[in-house]
Design a protein that fits this description.
The model has no long low-confidence stretch (mean pLDDT about 85). A 4-stranded antiparallel beta sheet has the order 1-8-4-5, with no helix packed on it. A 4-stranded antiparallel beta sheet has the order 2-3-7-6. The protein starts with 7 loop residues before the first strand and ends in a 14-residue tail after the last helix. The longest helix has 29 residues. It is built from 6 helices and 8 strands, in the order E-E-E-H-E-E-E-E-H-E-H-H-H-H. With about 180 residues, the protein is α+β, with helices and mostly antiparallel strands. About 15% of the residues are buried. The protein is globular and about 65 Å long.
Length: about 180
């Protein structure tokens, strides 16, 4: 088994796929990461550096047994580069847990609405982390309060959409009419 703490350094061009910028991880590095004992071999968590700027991310399948690394706009914009530029990537498997710790104000607001809390808890971990980042990025207390209320409202709306979708999936049986025979 490969060493999970091993650094993988490679140079790759940035590609633009739709609006995303990404680099393809070389096949040998992809195979090493896959065999390093990652808990999630399909989407292994990684960390490292792109041209010296630190990042944390998750690799995605790129086809032909390779992984693809999405390059966040905070990195490529800061470097003033775009698709076609070659970058040096230092990549390591991230063994540290990545919990989504809910702050007290959001936890209290969600607890007041059990449906919203149930919906929030059912979200994927990356989506919960994104919501928490959005909440934490508020610079003023009033903005944070508005965002907490907005997140609770969005969770209630999501729960309502899911309920509506479930009710549509269950077909209601209509009573069959007897055919009248005209003689």
């Amino acid at each position: 088994m490969a060493n999970a703490d091993q650094e993988h350094i490679f140079v790759a061009p940035i590609q633009k796929i739709w609006i995303m910028r990404c680099v393809d991880v070389p096949p040998d590095v992809s195979a090493t990461l896959r065999n390093a004992g990652a808990k999630d071999a399909k989407h292994p968590p990684v960390h490292g550096f792109i041209e010296g700027l630190p990042f944390k991310s998750t690799l995605v399948p790129g086809g032909a047994g390779r992984y693809r690394l999405h390059v966040h706009s905070r990195i490529w914009r800061k470097l003033k580069i775009d698709a076609g530029a070659e970058v040096e990537v230092t990549l390591m498997l991230d063994q540290a847990p990545r919990p989504a710790i809910v702050p007290k104000d959001l936890a209290a607001a969600l607890a007041a609405k059990p449906r919203a809390q149930k919906t929030f808890n059912a979200l994927t971990l990356p989506l919960r982390r994104q919501i928490l980042w959005y909440l934490e990025s508020a610079k003023h207390a009033s903005t944070r309060e508005k965002r907490v209320k907005l997140m609770v409202q969005r969770m209630l709306e999501r729960a309502a959409r899911q309920q509506k979708k479930k009710s549509k999936e269950k077909p209601t049986e209509k009573p069959r009419r007897k055919k009248s025979s005209a003689k």
